[in-house]
Amino acid sequence: IDYTLWRDLLFDRKSVKIRYLRMSNNIYIKNACVVNHDTIQENVSIYVENGVIKFIGTECDFPIPTNIEVIDASGKYVIPGGIDPHTHFELEFGGTFAVDDFYQGTCAAVAGGTTTIIDFVIPKKGQSILEAYEIWRKRADSKVVCDYGLHCAITWWSVEVNKDMEILAKEKGISSFKMFMAYKGLFMLDDSELYETFERCRDIGALAQVHAENGDIIAKNTKKLLENGVKGPEGHQLSRTEDVEAEATNRACVIAHQTNCPLYVVHVMSISAAEEVARARERWGKNFIFGETLAAALGASGEEYYDKCWHHAAAHVLSPPLRPRKETREVLMKMLANDDLQSTGSDNCTFNKKQKELGLDDFSKIPNGVNGVEDRMSVIWEKGGGTDIFCAAKIFNLYPKKGSLTVGADADIVIWNYKDTRTISVKTHHHACDFNIFEGMVCHGVPEIVIVGGKICVRDGKLSVTPGSGKFLPRNAFNTFIFKS
Ligand code: URP
Ligand code: ZN
Ligand code: ZN
Ligand code: ZN
């Protein structure tokens, strides 16, 4: 069934439209404790009509229709749906494809209370970035069950790429570009290319993003470790140590400063790299340098690479890796809380045990990536007692349509039951993958009801979604939160 077509047909016919909206799109939430970034409103009502929030408050000056869905939110928080600014659904990596596709990936997101994701278009070296964008749109549009945006990676540099970046920013709604300082020979750019891409981002009003690790050092270390017989997943951590991440983070911030281009450092995994972000923010501005950490960094430990079960260890391989310093999780959480870091992504890029086996005899061939899109909100809540939806919405120019519960915002709403608990497990998760790096974690706080675009998609632990019901979110360049005139 082509659900998109079916939905559009319904909307074309007025009489059916009304029936459809009655069925699923009009919701009244009463006794709500509404949590926004700047306020907590107790005992208010929310009225949702046609996928948008039409009223929030105590006294509505227009009649609320009767015979609509009524939700009693007493004793729970009502929060904006989560935004995961970093996913890789069905990404080709290391000769195989990530198993969470845009359907399964967004299902997992919604099940966990995340109602917007931003994925990365990653063109191959030499491939047109416009062509890669079209491929990602084609993959995603018919499958997504929540709204999504796209960043684009710049994996090679040419006059054509330079030109096409502007087309993406001006015409296609892509206003953030990720550059890799690692994955030598695959995606990595050198410093002069970084300089040029940053200048281009600045000129077209886009946010530059970096994967900050020193790819040259990693290549040397990998060769040395393999020659010395270190072949297991622990070699992944040993080849790309904390200082290798911190050095690249500082270098990226310096290039951002030199080119006067705002910068967002993705997946900050170590204390040292986070300190570089914090220092650069002090020196060059809080609306100029931003840092994102991952659910994995907050909820999993670097000791896993030494697990005697190879599959267990390999399942934790992502880049930059989890760190051996025990205090890492706690310190990164504190740095999020005090605004040294600004957001938490998942970097969801899942591979099954069989796929991870591509690196059985050589850690550098283990496909990189872990789960997280489903459990990100729970992990943040469990470890820090809060969420960071608002910052991602502002940084990526989605606010206040996303990341806020206000009149006119999209009705992406989570009824968060902070008294309930759930235990994370591969047996119950909504991912396509056969491992969960947060296995056994007991989380206080459950997304009891998840409303996506005005439709109840999660209730009583059951997911009810329609492939293709999500929309692509074009994000304008020259975001006023970052680019001050
Ligand atoms: O290990 C990771 N992070 N895999 C996805 C690609 C990337 O670098 O974000
Ligand atoms: Zn990366
Ligand atoms: Zn195991
Ligand atoms: Zn990533």
UniProtKB/TrEMBL annotation:
Family: Belongs to the metallo-dependent hydrolases superfamily. Hydantoinase/dihydropyrimidinase family.
Residue ranges of every copy of the Amidohydrolase-related domain listed in the record: 77-456
Protein name: dihydropyrimidinase
Species in which this protein is naturally found: Polypedilum vanderplanki
In-chain residues carrying the UniProt-annotated modification N6-carboxylysine: 178
Whole-protein residues included: 583 to 1067 of 1067
Record PTM: Carbamylation allows a single lysine to coordinate two divalent metal cations.
Subunit and partners: Homotetramer.
